[in-house]
Design brief:
heterodimer; A: alpha+beta; Chemotaxis protein chec; 8-stranded antiparallel beta sheet; B: alpha+beta; 3 helices; 9 strands
């Protein structure tokens, strides 16, 4: 596990949550994980990365936490039927900001980040690119818990 | 500024898909009428291989397949597994590898645009929904094989 990169991701995640939601998430112990079949996450957002650094960064959270975060976000009025679209957009924005800031901080040369993608569905499995270890950083908030997963490799 | 999707960029992905099935499995898939994909609609796909496109075109290519067809392809490739868990893992790796090969071959053909692909990410699960903030329609291309259907979804508008 790359502890330097893990620390950078942890700090940036905390900053994003403080800025967007005025909530300070508390990080738990990072660990290397496999592609988990059983988990509690209802929604995942990820960005894939190409260039001098390749791989994936993802955030995984429950529907209840996503809903609570939406309530904390400074959003204009929205219709109820738009709620899940807005939650998807919010999760996408978190992971996009995370990936952009991490790559800037990590000094990647000409990194390219894919559009952020969100996935919903019970027990959906995310298979990261093979050959990369998947590092999971758990976080807890007063509103619930979430995880950041990453699998990144430097090329060359 | 976002431009329209360009057939000279989309077609290499479809041609590359057909070539992979022919060369690896001796299967000749045929494609049906392209359609606009409805966000979060119900679907039958249990495994999705996702590739991000970055550069002069930005967007996403998704290869979507049923577990049944994926298992048939695994069987045709001669790979055996010892239990259902290992089978699922190998299927995910296989679909990720397909997505990577198809996209890699396609961008090698697209020499008039500077584009790159990201590593593949595979999602597995019944009724999983994939969405992204798109500013262009997602084009779905249905394919049929003698062993079942699959689908390629493409959303890669030109970034002017």
């Amino acid at each position: 596990m790359n502890t330097e990169l893990t620390d950078v991701i942890t700090t940036i995640t905390i900053n994003i949550f403080e800025k967007l939601f005025r909530e300070k998430p508390v990080p738990g112990l990072p660990s290397v994980v496999n592609e988990r079949k059983l988990h509690k996450w209802d929604i995942s957002g990820f960005s894939a990365v190409a260039g001098s650094m390749t791989g994936v960064m993802a955030i995984r959270l429950t529907a209840a936490l996503a809903d609570s975060l939406l309530g904390k976000a400074k959003l204009e009025h929205y219709e109820h039927h738009e709620k899940w679209k807005i939650i998807n957009d919010m999760v996408a924005e978190i992971v996009n900001t995370l990936a952009g800031n991490v790559l800037t901080e990590s000094g990647g040369i000409n990194p390219k980040i894919s559009v952020p993608i969100t996935v919903t569905g019970k027990d959906h499995i995310i298979a990261h690119p093979k050959n990369n270890a998947i590092v999971c950083i758990p976080f807890s908030l007063s509103l619930g818990s979430f995880e950041i997963e990453y699998s990144l490799n430097w090329i060359g | 500024m976002i431009g329209p999707m360009d057939v000279s960029v989309v077609n290499p992905f479809l041609n590359s898909t057909i070539r992979l099935f022919k060369e690896m499995f001796h299967i000749n898939p045929t494609y049906g009428k392209p359609f606009i994909v409805a966000p979060n609609g119900n679907h039958r796909w249990e495994i999705s291989g996702i590739i991000g496109i970055v550069g002069e075109h930005e967007g996403v290519i998704v290869f979507r397949i049923t577990s049944l067809l994926a298992q048939k392809l695994l069987q045709l490739s001669g790979v055996s597994t010892k239990d259902p868990e290992e089978t699922d893992q190998v299927l995910r790796e296989m679909i990720g590898e397909f997505a990577n090969i198809i996209s890699g071959n396609a961008i090698a053909e697209i020499q008039h645009r500077k584009i790159e692909i990201t590593p593949p990410v595979v999602i597995q699960g019944k009724n999983h929904n994939i969405s992204w903030q798109f500013e262009a329609p997602i084009i779905g291309v249905p394919f049929v094989t003698s062993y079942g259907p699959f689908e390629v979804q493409i959303c890669i508008p030109y970034q002017k």
